[in-house]
Every structure is written in structure tokens, then in C-alpha cells.
Amino acid sequence: MKKSKKGFNYFEAFVNLSKYSLSSAEILHKTLAEFKASELPNKVKEMHEIEHSADIAKHELMNHLVKEFLPPIEREDIITLAQGIDDVTDCVEDVLLFINMFNIKEIRSGILKFTELISTLCKSLHDALVEFQNFKNSKTLHGKIVEINHLEEEGDGLYMEMMRGLYSSSKDAIELMTWTEILHRLEKCCDKCEDVADTMEQIVMKNS
């Protein structure tokens, strides 16, 4: 592991940020699996507390970086990676916010497959970031990044399949609008996970 002279470990901080993403993804999946519209405000509050804690952790990292004389990797890469992980958490929260905002009363068939995939992606991202701490000597990091890319492709396929199913089964304008937005945000969660994986890969290449 790489540490700054002051002892702040940026790589551990990345792992910590990814724990918030994973927690938010697990809450999203559990909330929709046990869906009760009356419980949504409480679940939104719980989700926001995780997102807020993630923001605090990200700001702490940034505060250390401002004072850092010689960070272990380029400042721009630290900022991009930290922001990318935080974006994953934000996007997962967005899904639940929109479900609540649109006053959804029932979860469409297949949505749980999508939220389960996002949870798997966030777990894979966390595992990759654990391995990223030793990126110069790691024998498994590349495989973990490839796994994230494959899962994101699975998300793309699921998005197209579910969009087609939505427009094949409904003519209701409000239903089409609301679920189009929700599906778009589910797919965006997958994209954001892949963005973090791509950033890790670029950092490895730059430091090889």
C-alpha cells in the first residue's frame, strides 16, 4: 500500500468510498425487492444519509490532497477516481429519488434483475479498488476490471431488453415516461461503475 508522508492512505480512502456505493446499491435492491410505497420516504432518507456520508469522506480526501506535497499518483487522477466513485453513489440514490418522485406504486417485472446487477457491479468495483492498492504488482486487477466491463455490457443488454418490453406492453404515456426515466437511471449506474474501472486502468497504464 502507498501512503503519503502524513500517513493519509488515498487507496484506502478509495475503498472506503466504494463501500458507500455498495451500501446504497444493496439498499436500493432490498427496497424494491420488499417494495412498499408507504416506506419510500424512510428509505429515501436512509439512502441520503449514506450519500451524505460519502460526500463527507470525499471532502476529507480532497482536504488532504490540497495539503499534500507529493501524492502517490497524480492529483488529477486522485480527483477523477474519487469523484467517479462518488458519482456511482449519487446515481444509485437518483434511482430511488425518481421512484419516490414519480409516486410509483408497483415495481415492474424485471427491475430486480437490474438492481441485483448494480449490486454485483458495486461489489466488483469494491473488490477491484481493494486490489488497486497494489496495482503495480497485482496479478488480478486487470481481470477484475474486465469483469466490470462485462457486467456493464450485461447492463446495456438488460436496458435495451427492458425498454423494448416497456414499449411493447404499455401505451400509457405517464407509465412510459416514468419507467423510461427510471430505466435510464439504472443503466447510468452501470455506466458510472465502468467509468471508475476505466480510470483505474488508465492510472495503471500511466504508472507502469
UniProtKB/TrEMBL annotation:
SUPFAM superfamilies named among the record's database cross-references: PhoU-like
One Pfam short name: PhoU_div
Family: Belongs to the UPF0111 family.
Protein name: Phosphate transport regulator
Source organism: Herbinix hemicellulosilytica
